[in-house]
Amino acid sequence: MKQRHKFESIVAETLLIPLYYRAKESRRKNPILNDKVAEGLVDSLEYDYSRFDGAKLSEVGCVVRGWFFDRAVRRFIGKHADAVVVNVGCGLDTRFQRIGDGKAVFYDMDLPEVIALRRELIPEQPGNPYIAASLLDAGWLDDLRRRHPDAHFIFVVEGVLMYFYEEQVKTVLKHIAERFSGGELWFDVCGKMMVKSGAKPDSLRKSAAEIRSGISDGHEVESWVPALELIEQACYQKFFTERWGVVMRLFARFPRFSCKFSSLLGYRIK
Fold it and tell me: pTM here?
């Protein structure tokens, strides 16, 4: 029997978007990423996913984003035997199930409402504990540092920061950078042009969720938080070019322009 869940938060409900697109992608021949757990989760939840069909840019973008961050995490784990992976605003993400190596610890963190649903659908496993907290509360970060005083941390904040105001984003980044030197921080952003125009990703056009902040130049973050050093800023269309339409393929030729709308960012914490 399928489970129905009523979300208290509009933003929390957006967790179903990447889940649905990962499941849909996983069923393709030669998918960008395989996610059998996502397939099962989509089938177990009673929800009208058809509202997300037709959002072709988001459909490709979500799975490219997941693949991109999976790749960053794999690299980090390969460099650090004591790696701790923190999936911030995890929703129903399944990174641990996709790439967990049995050695690195994977924490999944989100609001209490989301973690409660997650515990029902994806029970915690050894090496994959959950954290129920607010992104703006630094207490859970202090607790992580105490639990793993000598570990190297990589934080992935996927599909989250665009729903926060710029000052809140600065606060989150500072909180992480102040506590986890030697680690890495990866996240995705909408660009300033998208925010100024009032546009939304095509998957959100039927949602009341608002895009509240944007970053076009990854070096701007370095001025906010000097402890962060840009490793990479990439436009989505750079990857799996054959999956994008003709117009988006042109964007790949002009990455600076493309980043005015959205990009993927990675930082080293000095």
Answer: 0.95
